[in-house]
């Protein structure tokens, strides 16, 4: 993957404008998901459209090449195929539109890698089924090269390898069904992707190939969707369910995410995983039965890490990185029978220039050169603070957390909230040895729970994984968490 080392420049005008307070839309998502309700495309070609014939192999490629920018193509009903070479693909021109008649399918026949590629801007893909493409891991089928300003709407993207689609700057993805793709439904990467909108889509059954298992030590590269170095994303009103891995995963120097009004349920991993990233609002979502598979895996290997539905890992608010908020604000969400609640974690060994930083060669957004994060500079501020991704300025409030361990088959290590780190130890020159980071995340970095509602036998992990505390200690004078929260602690284990 490409690596971005500098500070993100302020946007001239944020395309992702602030949204109103969340409405309660999640209750209707399951009954009106995109996969059941894809609107049909036009039965007749739009005025001026170039007609593409399914009976002529390669007709879509040939007519795209022969037509000027800004052409609308109408694909007749039937199965459209490309050439026989693995690199046969459609390369749109600026402003092209591809719209499918009812029953129009673009099929890669497990031969072609990519369906729509290239750097054209302002391309629209709509009312098509795109299937059978064999993209490699970490690559995508639709908008493979992350062209800017694409609109991808009302499509069925299914049974492809790799990711069903990539994202470019200002891309809008609405009303699509992304189903049973090999690695991801969406892969948004790396550094030039800004201000994307993902609304009203359904992600189901993705990571069908269990890509994580192909790598001896795992790859951290699976789930419904993955974001890397994306600045500005609105993810709202989507139904994200039954995927192998996390639901929403933002990993490495993402910023300014608004995640609202989504129904996220029955995913094997966390509902939302926000990792080494900045500034986000997570509100008005319904999270149900997530992380049950991953949670049980922790139990099976006797790992007492607090596996969670919302996992904030080395991520926090920072006003120096321009965004619509200067915190991670998790509020007014409904949590129902997930393995865990919210975990705020900071790995003391993971910082810029550390061998434990799995985002190799990448630095924080407030340090412009990895080489700066070495002794003696890293031993004193500002680099002592700026060389690590901090879990800081996280607010968890106004949420309802409900769990009955019997409902999720849990006998141990579920129904936990957590605020913790590990004791730093690597490398030898690390300035974060001992309990420097556990103390910082727990007491000094403005991480607060308050005004929440708890139903069920919740417990709390504080400072490090060995400290499991009850409600009275969590709220007491040492940790001072969950002021104004209410607790109905029944439910039994």
From TrEMBL:
Coiled coil: none annotated. InterPro entries: Beta_helix, PbH1, Pectin_lyas_fold, Pectin_lyase_fold/virulence. Pfam families: Beta_helix (PF13229). Residues 146-312 form the Right handed beta helix domain. It comes from Amycolatopsis methanolica 239. This is Lipoprotein. Keywords: Lipoprotein, Signal. SUPFAM superfamilies: Pectin lyase-like (SSF51126). Residues 1-15 form the signal peptide.
